[in-house]
Design brief:
Helix content is 46%, strand content 21%. It has helices at residues 2-16, 20-36, 79-84, 110-132, 204-214, 216-219, 249-254, 259-267, 282-289, 316-320, 325-334, 343-365, 369-377, 383-388, 391-395, 402-429, 434-437, 444-452, 458-462, 466-469, 477-495; strands at 44-49, 56-65, 76-78, 94-99, 139-147, 151-157, 160-165, 180-191, 194-200, 223-231, 235-242, 272-277, 297-301, 306-311, 337-342.
Length: 496
């Protein structure tokens, strides 16, 4: 039987291309599993195979525990038992007793076979992960092996398979058995069945890798791809840049008579690709990304990381694109929230915001309209800026002297102080309910702030939205969502 074991290990190892050590461990596990059937309960059995001769021995094992921890007579012995047997084994050690080995012929039983098959599969998956771990984010090629309702199973060769989920297929494209396919290795996903290679043809990185394949200047790092956005199967934008002034990055990506970009487009089922020149100036980058629409003006709001993009009325539809496609892709490419509007609407919005600012200065600083207008035109956007901006900067304003600057700064600080006192009074008068104070994740100060805004009970908090809570100082989106879910917990308990 010893030679038979060696023959089986040799054959399986060669067939599955996995280390012999893995097969030996599988056979040992299978033999131990067969031997355990002779005992009742949860007996522990170990099999050791001599990998040179194929001979093997079987041992029954017991864990040594102290008397008070003794609970499993099938797999445990106490330290007192060891003393009676004259053995110097303490708690935490293992006592082994050699028992009769099972015949290797019984490995033909279904259970034993499954152990070997499972071990081989685990080894194959581990080998697959090692082979493809450095290829994540790269293009891979394969052949369609199976088509299911949810995905395509792709044979990558070398006993490696990958899954291409239907949601990662480009719109309207279909593949049949044995079709050749190219995709991006998106990730190696771990689940109950082990490691799984997941592919994508819709990820922006797929388009980037296609350009890297078609444009030598990109693979040679002469041209750098700075960003990409896609509406898979319909339209995409990609931003490129080069530090070599002799090279036109857009022209290089387009290729002679559009050959390079057309090759990429064909691979993506005819997806139209706009190639955009990257610019480190966010406003200029947005102007480039909005092409082919022409931008009249841009107003940047750093706090909300958004831009108001103004275009001519007859250019508005092109700027927005079908179903908002153009502005959506431009926003994804640049990382800015873009609000597209006509030049007339932009001017009206700017005038409205300017008037609000002027009214604020008139009310808060007790000044006339002309002075408020001058402050707004100089770029002051809040009372805080007037209170704390360096005096030298304000003295540079035409018509401003030291007395005027000091007076404006004093009035601004008094306004801020009054506002702070009013907020404190609101907090002092606010009385949050006990359930709000005792709610998980709540602290006294936040409860007082919420109560001052009319959120007194857990029920009040449960009815809030995340957007309403993130206006509170120190509140981020994640904490707001967590607090709201905690407050809504009683709702779900009642429904159950």
């Amino acid at each position: 039987m010893s030679k038979e074991i060696l023959l089986v290990v040799e054959a399986v190892s060669n067939e599955k291309d996995v280390p012999k050590q893995v097969i030996f461990e599988a056979v040992e596990t299978a033999l131990a599993s067969a031997a355990k059937r002779r005992f009742e309960g949860e007996a522990k059995v170990r099999v050791s195979i001599d990998q040179r001769t194929g001979d093997y021995k079987t041992y029954r094992q017991w864990d040594i525990v102290v008397d008070e921890d003794y609970s499993a007579p099938d797999s445990e012995l106490t330290t007192d038992d060891m003393e009676e047997m004259g053995l110097a084994l303490g708690a935490g050690e293992i006592f082994e007793e050699e028992i009769e080995s099972e015949s290797f012929g019984r490995i033909a039983a279904q259970t034993a076979k499954q152990v070997i098959v499972q071990k081989v599969r685990e080894a194959e998956r581990a080998k697959m992960v090692a082979l493809y771990s450095d290829k994540v984010g790269k293009l891979v090629h394969g052949q369609v092996k199976k088509v299911t309702r949810d995905s395509l199973i792709i044979d990558l060769g070398e006993n490696a398979e990958a899954s291409l989920p239907k949601e990662h297929l480009i719109n309207r494209e279909t593949f049949r058995l044995n079709d050749r396919i190219r995709a991006l290795l998106l990730e190696i996903r771990e689940d109950n069945r082990g490691s799984q290679l997941v592919l994508s043809r819709t990820a922006p990185e797929y388009m980037i890798e296609l350009f890297r394949l078609e444009v030598p200047e990109i693979s040679e790092e002469v041209i750098d791809i700075r960003g990409a956005a896609r509406d898979p199967g319909l339209r995409a934008k990609i931003a490129v840049k080069t530090s070599d002034r002799r090279i036109d990055p857009i022209g290089a990506c387009v290729g002679m008579r559009g050959a390079r970009v057309q090759a990429v487009s064909n691979e993506m089922n005819g997806e139209r690709v706009d190639i955009v020149l990257w610019d480190d100036n966010p406003a200029q980058l947005v102007i480039n990304a909005m092409a082919p629409a022409e931008v009249d003006s841009i107003v940047i709001d750093e706090d909300s990381h958004a831009m108001d993009v103004a275009v001519k009325s007859d250019n508005l539809a092109q700027a927005i694109g079908r179903n908002g496609q153009n502005v959506r892709l431009a926003s994804a490419l640049t990382g800015w929230t873009l609000n597209v509007m006509t030049a007339e609407d932009a001017e009206a919005k700017q005038l409205e915001e300017s008037q609000k600012l002027i009214d604020l200065f008139v009310s808060a600083l007790d000044i006339d309209d002309d002075l408020a207008i001058q402050l707004a035109e100089e770029g002051f956007a809040s009372v805080e800026e007037i209170a704390y901006v360096p005096m030298e900067e304000m003295l540079d304003i035409d018509g401003f002297d030291e007395d005027l600057v000091n007076e404006l700064r004093t009035r601004a600080k008094e306004t801020l102080l009054n506002q702070a006192l009013q907020e404190e009074e609101q907090l002092d008068s606010a009385k949050p309910a006990q359930d709000l104070l005792e709610m998980e994740g709540m602290d006294n100060h936040l409860a007082l702030v919420l109560a001052s805004k009319g959120v007194v009970t857990m029920e009040d908090l449960a009815e809030q939205s995340v957007d309403e809570l993130i206006d509170i100082d120190g509140m981020d989106e994640q904490r707001a969502a967590t607090l709201i879910l905690t407050a809504r917990a009683p709702w779900f308990a009642e429904s159950e």
